C-alpha cells in the first residue's frame, strides 16, 4: 500500500465528537459476557449438581468420566463451545469492541498506534481456526439434542413432558440456529462457490447457503439467545439436582 | 421558523477552528442544504465537495456530530431543537480545505487490485441471476469512502501503508465471486492487502449509505477463502484433489 498519513488536525481532537450514548452498547456487552463467564467458570469447577434423573446439564455433556482425570468433567468438553464462541465472527466484533477497545464504537478512538496488526499474528491469527471449532461444536450439539430427547423418558421408562425437558429442547433449537448460522459454515456449505448453477451439487449447496444466510443475518440474536439459554438450562438442572425445585412435569 | 446552529470546521492542513452559523430549518432539509445556505448567505468561501444531492455520487462525505455520513442523506429533523450540529471533514484523509479532503490514496490502492479476468474463450456467457446477485450488492458502492474513514485500522492506527480498507475488500469480493472471473487474488489479499488487519468490528457496515453488508457478505467470505488457501490443511488437500477455483 502507499501511505497517506492520518494527521491529527484541528478538525479532530479528543476521543470522539459523537454526542450519543456510544458507550452503552460496549458496556452492556462487557457486563453480559462477564456475568456469563463468571457463572460458567463457577459451574464448570463446581463439579456437582449437573445431573439428576434423565436430565444432564449442557455444561457437562457429553459426560466424560475417566479414572485418569481428577478434575471436573466439564473441563474436558467446555473448550469446544468456548473455542467456537471465542473465534465466532460476531463475538470477535463484540469483545474487540467491549474489552480491547479496537475500537470501542464507530468513530471513537480506542487504542491507537501503528503497531496494530489485527489478526495477522499470534495469538489472534488462531481466529482462522474457527471452522475447526465449528466441526467440534456441531458434534457436541448433536449430543445435546440426544440429551434433550432422552429427557422425555423417565428412569423407569415412562414418557414424560416437563418444563425442564422443554427448556432443554429450546436450548438445542437456539444453539442450532447459532451453530448453523455461523459464517464459517455459510462459507463451507456454499459460499466458497463462485457459480451456484453449474451442476446439481452446486444447486443443492446454493439452497443450503440461502437457508444458512437467513440464519446468519440474525447471528447476533442467535448468539445472545443461545448463550442465555445454555446458562439458564444449566441453572435449571442445578436447581433440580440441589432439590430446590422439581423439573415441573406436565404429564 | 425553527433555526439550527451548525458548528462547521473552517481551516486547512495548517490549522483551523470551528465557526458557528445559524440556519433556518425547512421541511425536508438535509445537512448539505444547511451548508449550501451558509455558503450563500454567510461564507461564500466555505469549501465543500458535492455533486448529486441524492446519495448516489458519494461526494459529500463528512462527519456529522462525530458520525461519518453523507451530508445529503442526513436530515435536519433528526436533530433535537437547540442541538448544536458539528460538521467536520472526514478524519482519515488529509484535509485540503474546510470540509474537503484528499481521498486520492484510495485510487492508488484500487490500481493494485487485479481486474476482472474472464476466461480466454469465445463461448457465449450465460449467467444466471442467482450467480450474480451476490456480486450486484457490491456494485452498489458509490465510493463515498465513509467505510474507509470509519475503519479504525486506517483511522486510528494509520495503517494505510499496509491495509487496503473495506472499500477495496468489497471490490475484490465482487471480482472473486464473479462466476466468470478466473484470477486468484488470495495471496494479494493476505500479503499485500492484509485482510488479516480487519478485526471485523463492522463499523464499515454501519456507516455504508448503500446498506452494503460489507463485513458479512464481502470481508468475512474473503477471510474464509484466505483460510481455505493458507490456514486450513484439510481444505488444501480437498482443493488439490478436486481443483482450484470453483
Strand order of the largest sheet of chain A: 1-2
Q: Output the CATH topology of the largest domain in chain B.
A: Fumarate Reductase Iron-sulfur Protein, Chain B, domain 2
Q: What order do the SSEs of chain A take from the amino end to the carboxyl end, as H and E?
A: HEEHHHHHHHH
Structural class designation of chain A: mainly alpha
Largest interface: A-B, 59 and 75 residues
Sketch the major β-sheet of chain A. Answer: 2 strands, antiparallel
How are the strands of the biggest sheet of chain B laid out side by side?
A: 2-1-5-3-4
Helix content of chain A: 40-55%
Output the structural class of chain B: alpha+beta
Q: Can you tell me the residue ranges of chain A where pLDDT is under 50 for at least 5 consecutive residues?
A: none
CATH architecture identity of the largest domain in chain B: Orthogonal Bundle
Amino acid at each position: 500500500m502507499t501511505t497517506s498519513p492520518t494527521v491529527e488536525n484541528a478538525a479532530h481532537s479528543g476521543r470522539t465528537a459523537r454526542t450519543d450514548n456510544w458507550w452503552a452498547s460496549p458496556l452492556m456487552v462487557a457486563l453480559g459476557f462477564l456475568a456469563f463467564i463468571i457463572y460458567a467458570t463457577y459451574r464448570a469447577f463446581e463439579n456437582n449438581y449437573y445431573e439428576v434423573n434423565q436430565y444432564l446439564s449442557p455444561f457437562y455433556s457429553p459426560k466424560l468420566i475417566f479414572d485418569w482425570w481428577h478434575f471436573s468433567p466439564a473441563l474436558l468438553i467446555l473448550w469446544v463451545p468456548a473455542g467456537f464462541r471465542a473465534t465466532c465472527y460476531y463475538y470477535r466484533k463484540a469483545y474487540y469492541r467491549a474489552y480491547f477497545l479496537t475500537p470501542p464504537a464507530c468513530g471513537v478512538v480506542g487504542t491507537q498506534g501503528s503497531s496494530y496488526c489485527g489478526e495477522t499474528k499470534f495469538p489472534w491469527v488462531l481466529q482462522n481456526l474457527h471452522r475447526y471449532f465449528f466441526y467440534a461444536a456441531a458434534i457436541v450439539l448433536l449430543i445435546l439434542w440426544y440429551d434433550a430427547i432422552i429427557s422425555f423418558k423417565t428412569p423407569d421408562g415412562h414418557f414424560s413432558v416437563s418444563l425442564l425437558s422443554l427448556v432443554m429442547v429450546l436450548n438445542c433449537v437456539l444453539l442450532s440456529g447459532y451453530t448453523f448460522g455461523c459464517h464459517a459454515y455459510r462459507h463451507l456449505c456454499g459460499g466458497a462457490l463462485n457459480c451456484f448453477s453449474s451442476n446439481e451439487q452446486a444447486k443443492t449447496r446454493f439452497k443450503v447457503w440461502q437457508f444458512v444466510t437467513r440464519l446468519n443475518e440474525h447471528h447476533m440474536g442467535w448468539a445472545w439467545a443461545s448463550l442465555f439459554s445454555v446458562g439458564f438450562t444449566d441453572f435449571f438442572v442445578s436447581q433440580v439436582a440441589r432439590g430446590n425445585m422439581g423439573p415441573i412435569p406436565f404429564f | 421558523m425553527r433555526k439550527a446552529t451548525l458548528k462547521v470546521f473552517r481551516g486547512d492542513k495548517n490549522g483551523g477552528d470551528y465557526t458557528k452559523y445559524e440556519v433556518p430549518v425547512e421541511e425536508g432539509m438535509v445537512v448539505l442544504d444547511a451548508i449550501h445556505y451558509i455558503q450563500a448567505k454567510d461564507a461564500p468561501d466555505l469549501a465543500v465537495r458535492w455533486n448529486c444531492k441524492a446519495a448516489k455520487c458519494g461526494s459529500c462525505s463528512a462527519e456529522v456530530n462525530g458520525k461519518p455520513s453523507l451530508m445529503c442523506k442526513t436530515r435536519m429533523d433528526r436533530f433535537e431543537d437547540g442541538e448544536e450540529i458539528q460538521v467536520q471533514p472526514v478524519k482519515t484523509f488529509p484535509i485540503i480545505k474546510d470540509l474537503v479532503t484528499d481521498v486520492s490514496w484510495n485510487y492508488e490502492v484500487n490500481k493494485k487490485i487485479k481486474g476482472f479476468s474472464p476466461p480466454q474463450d469465445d463461448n457465449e456467457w450465460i449467467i444466471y441471476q442467482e450467480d450474480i446477485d451476490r456480486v450486484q450488492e457490491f456494485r452498489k458502492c458509490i465510493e463515498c469512502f465513509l467505510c474507509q474513514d470509519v475503519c479504525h485500522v486506517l483511522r486510528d492506527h494509520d495503517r494505510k501503508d499496509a491495509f487496503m480498507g473495506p472499500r477495496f475488500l468489497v471490490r475484490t469480493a465482487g471480482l472473486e465471486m464473479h462466476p466468470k472471473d478466473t484470477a486468484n487474488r488470495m495471496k494479494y489479499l493476505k500479503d499485500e492487502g492484509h485482510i488479516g488487519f480487519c478485526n471485523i468490528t463492522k463499523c464499515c457496515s454501519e456507516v455504508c449509505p448503500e446498506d452494503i453488508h460489507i463485513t458479512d457478505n464481502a470481508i468475512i467470505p474473503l477471510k474464509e477463502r484466505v483460510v481455505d488457501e493458507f490456514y486450513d490443511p484439510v481444505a488444501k488437500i480437498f482443493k488439490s484433489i478436486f481443483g482450484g477455483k470453483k
